[in-house]
Amino acid sequence: MFAFFVGFVFSCFSWWSPATIAVVVAQQPPVDAQKGKELYLKYSCYACHGYDGHGGAGARLVPLAMTVERFTAYVHNPRQMPPYTEKILSDAQLADLFAYIKSLPVSPAAKDIPLLSRIINQRP
Amino acid sequence: MANARENSLGRRRFLKGAAASAAALVANSAPISARPQEAGAARPNPAAPPNAQLAADTEPPPRRVASRLVERPGSDFMVDVIKSLGFEYVAANPGSSFEGLHESIINYGDNKLPELLTCCHEESSVAMAHGYAKIEGKPMLSLVHGNIGLQHASMAIYNAYADRVPVVVIAGNWRDAGTRNNGVNSYHSAQDMALIVRDYVKWDDEPASLTAFAESAVRAYKIAMTPPMEPVLLVIDHDIQLHAMGDARPRIPRLTMPSPPAGEPGAVREAARLLVVAENPRINAGRAARTPNGIALLVELAELLQAPVNGGGDRVNFPSRHPLAGSGTGAGDVILNLEVQGGGGPGFGGAARGANAKTINISSLELFIKSNLQDFQHMPDADIVIAADAEATLPALVEEVRRQLTADRKRTLQERGKKIADAHHQARVAAAEAAAFGWESSPISLARLSAELWAQIEREDWSLVSWQGFVSGWPGRLWNFDKHYRYIGGQGAGAMGYGAPAAVGAALANRKHGRLSISIQTDGDLNYAPGVLWTACHHQIPLLTVMHNNRAYHQEVMFIQQMASQRNRGGDRAHIGTTLRDPNIDYAKMAQAYGMYGEGPISDPKALAPAITRALDRVKRGEPALIDVITQPR
């Protein structure tokens, strides 16, 4: 995540001096999964995706296969879910959100859960 | 208890004081014309109730018959009529407009067949009747107070109407203005009381005599029970209930139910032809199976055709684990819709529809569409429309399909059936795999809640008496719905306040069959009229209520969130006006307050199974129990 920001800043401002770049990079706040969690709750992401990102009315987010760039682009201009433009959630906030979702634990497989494996094997 | 007594005494003292003040005002009053208006003159206390209300609240009931007893009141005969129709229960919140009938039911009728169920709200009375009918297949009676009780009941009547469920409602009325008192009796009277709900009852009447009552009651029952089944309303005069019968006992007409309307043979033959030659037919069932036989007939048809059946969500139309259950594969070329509201639009059940697909609609609603309300949905597109009851038409359709199937065609269809069975199995495995997501989450996932419940009820004769829509259909994806009473479907018109009382009514119907009733109860719905928990306790109705407590009217959270986002305002205020937090509601304590076993809140998924076990132990002993589970939103 941090590397992404460094790369992004470097490519945008490559005509700047190394000293200036260093200052800009230093000013970028590091991604913060805790802030991402606060945003996840504040903007009711849980309403559709569940408190742990395991889905519900909306898609399952865990494990999240998207890159942060794709994630940011999608949230700003989604196909299905309500849009959250840059005015509402900045790229930096979405980076925090992305970090939080990435931190969420993956569920065990159904075959490893006795209650569910029984259901799979039950006869009609 | 001490507090309750003090409060009661306090209210009496208040009323007594208010009565004294009011009496003083009356005593001191002079004719208006003789009394000049005085600036700043003392005015009556606006909080004091009017005299008529005070009298109604504080004085003994007026003596209606000064010098003689009424030996054979008209309402006794009404009970005879009601008994002749086989009602088991009558749900009511008491109201003086039907006081005569109330007294006759509990004394003359010995409070048996029907037994009076004490309800805390008329919406609960009718919704209980709604749930009861969906299990028992026949109506419960509901008594409601003139005007006010009927208005309280109106939403539940509309739900039953939209859900095509028979309920017989009786409302009291003081029809004769010449004998009616001013005050509350007038507030509870109307020239045309049925007007309040006429848009969503199938039939109503206000019989002017006992003879007319007998005929109207039998007719009402018959109309309610003829497909499409719907609620009906009788308005009964207060004074007819109280007056003594004449010497001649009126006749009670014999109830002879009409055979339900079945499809015209020519149309059925053509429908069968389309289905037999179809390469990829699909069957969509809405409120098709009215009885267990409806399920058996649909299984027979599906197996003959080797066609997939989308059972919908309104009834158990088809066993959920039958290999042909589901949407099959590929695009359908012939779609058979059985009692599907609106004839089944392209979106029904997600069934894929080929570009040139032929559609056959069979529905009794073709025979009955009225009302200002748009519950009848869009005008359906169809190639064959059969205006008839689907279940009554299925025997002829099955026979016609059987007749038209050749041996070669049967062999081809068997191959199709194997593919559909494979798709069904894959869907079952996919559902179980999806249920694993968030398995360890807290709040508890609805899939886990459903799986934990299933593990403890699957060997019982269970019945799910709540709607699955708000729990993402998890029971339907994980449980084996193989009998008609396994599930009662939803509200009908989508109105909250139905869930808790319908569950209690359905559980009451299940009680005599020894079935285990389970309700996954949404928190928003329960808060409409939670007094039905007391009714369940009072009448010892065994029912396990598992709260789906997501602390919100969650559908609305998502709607407001979407609205705000579409307007580029974010969703951070979507909780305002849509959530039930701050303070959180303690449903275990709520249950306990009504006299019910209550446990929770439970948010640790590992604590859920033991809690279910403890609550089920209570239910199996014949009492209701509630566990409050803090859940994921959906």
List keywords for this structure.
heterodimer, A: 124 residues, mainly alpha, Cytochrome Bc1 Complex, Chain D, domain 2, 2 domains, 7 helices, disordered N terminus, B: 634 residues, alpha/beta, Rossmann fold, 3 domains, 6-stranded parallel β-sheet, 21 helices, 16 strands
SSE blueprint:
The complex is a heterodimer of chains A (124) and B (634).
Chain A: H1 2-12, H2 18-27, H3 33-42, H4 45-49, H5 68-76, H6 91-103, H7 114-121
Helix pairs in contact in A: 3-6, 5-6
Chain B: H1 2-28, H2 51-58, H3 74-84, E1 89-92, H4 99-108, E2 115-118, H5 122-136, E3 141-144, H6 148-162, E4 168-173, H7 184-187, E5 203-205, H8 210-225, E6 232-237, H9 238-242, H10 265-277, E7 281-285, H11 292-305, E8 309-310, E9 332-338, E10 353-363, E11 384-387, H12 390-404, H13 407-435, H14 446-457, E12 462-464, H15 474-478, H16 499-511, E13 516-522, H17 523-526, H18 532-538, E14 544-549, H19 554-566, H20 587-593, E15 597-602, H21 605-620, E16 625-630
Parallel strand pairs in B: 1-2, 1-3, 3-4, 4-6, 5-6, 7-8, 7-9, 9-10, 10-11, 12-13, 13-14, 14-16, 15-16
Task: Provide structural commentary.
The complex is a heterodimer of chains A (124) and B (634). With 124 residues, chain A is mainly α. Chain A has 2 domains: 1-29, no CATH class; 31-106, Orthogonal Bundle (Cytochrome Bc1 Complex, Chain D, domain 2), CATH 1.10.760. Helix content of chain A is 53%, strand content 0%. Chain A has 7 helices and no strands. Chain A has helices at 2-12, 18-27, 33-42, 45-49, 68-76, 91-103, 114-121. The longest helix of chain A is centred in the C-terminal third of the chain and has 13 residues, at 91-103. With 634 residues, chain B is α/β, with parallel strands linked by helices. Chain B folds into 3 domains: 74-242, Thiamin diphosphate (ThDP)-binding fold, Pyr/PP domains (Rossmann fold); 265-428, Rossmann fold (3-Layer(aba) Sandwich); 436-630, Rossmann fold (3-Layer(aba) Sandwich), CATH 3.40.50.970. In chain B, 41% of the residues lie in helices and 13% in strands. In chain B, strands 2-1-3-4-6-5 form a 6-stranded parallel β-sheet, sandwiched between helices. Chain B has a 5-stranded parallel β-sheet with strand order 8-7-9-10-11. A 5-stranded parallel β-sheet of chain B has the order 12-13-14-16-15, sandwiched between helices. In chain B, β15, α21 (605-620) and β16 form a beta-alpha-beta unit. In chain B, α1 packs antiparallel against α2, α3 (74-84) packs parallel to α8 and α14 (446-457) runs parallel beside α21. The relative contact order of chain B is 0.09. The interface between A and B is large, with 37 and 45 residues.
